[in-house]
């Protein structure tokens, strides 16, 4: 089996970039990047120094339920091109030593026993192993320090 690392959907990014409300019903905050540690979840590149970006609450689930985690993410303020689905971990994420990888069922709820802090070089292998389970529909990769959503991982 292979895996696919998937960036934030373009329709979601464009709605937010055009002033749409975030997961808490708020207008995203607009800031100017200093070029350090502002990863856009749509193009999967750091927002360069001097460029505008948005800080917003994001909930990568279709509806509210107890496992629908919501947290902060960054997004270029202006339209950027979505990162292509990738069979290997995107370069942006190689700067960090580890991430949380966690599986979710078709009902968008955590599948217990799938979550772990995984060293970055092992994420694709771990994702492949978890996605072999029939009760796992997809995975999230999240910050091991702050639990921020990074990307979705699906079967390739």
What does this 3D model show about the protein?
This is DUF1203 domain-containing protein. InterPro entries: DUF1203. Pfam families: DUF1203 (PF06718). The protein is mostly beta strands. It has two domains: 8-76, first zn-finger domain of poly(adp-ribose) polymerase-1 (2-Layer Sandwich); 85-155, no CATH class. Helices cover 11% and strands 29% of the residues. The strands form two sheets. The protein has a five-stranded antiparallel beta sheet with strand order 1-8-7-5-6. β7 (138-143) and β8 form a beta hairpin. It is globular and about 40 Å long. The N and C termini lie close together (7 Å).
Q: Give the termini separation.
A: 7 Å
Report the C-alpha radius of gyration, rounded: 15 Å
Give me the side-by-side strand order of the main sheet. 1-8-7-5-6
Biggest beta sheet attributes:
5 strands, antiparallel
Number of strands: 8
Q: Which percent range fits the helix content?
A: 10-25%
Helices and strands in order, then pairings?
Layout: E1 3-6, H1 10-17, E2 29-32, E3 52-58, E4 71-76, E5 98-104, E6 116-119, H2 123-131, E7 138-143, E8 149-155
Antiparallel strand pairs: 1-8, 2-3, 3-4, 5-6, 5-7, 7-8
Organism: Mesorhizobium retamae
InterPro entries: DUF1203 (IPR009593)
Pfam families: DUF1203
């Amino acid at each position: 089996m292979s895996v696919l690392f998937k960036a934030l959907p373009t329709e979601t990014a464009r709605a937010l970039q055009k002033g749409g409300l975030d997961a808490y019903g708020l207008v995203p905050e607009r800031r100017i990047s200093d070029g350090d540690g502002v990863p856009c979840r749509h193009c999967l590149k750091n927002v360069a120094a001097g460029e505008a970006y948005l800080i917003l609450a994001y909930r990568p689930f279709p509806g509210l339920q107890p496992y629908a985690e919501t947290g902060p993410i960054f997004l270029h303020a202006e339209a950027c091109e979505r990162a292509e689905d990738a069979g290997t971990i995107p370069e942006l994420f190689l700067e960090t030593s580890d991430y949380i990888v966690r599986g979710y069922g078709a009902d968008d709820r955590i599948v217990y026993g799938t979550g772990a802090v995984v060293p970055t070089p092992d994420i694709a292998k771990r994702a492949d192993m978890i996605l072999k389970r029939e009760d796992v529909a997809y995975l999230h990769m999240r910050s091991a320090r702050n639990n921020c959503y990074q990307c979705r991982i699906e079967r390739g």
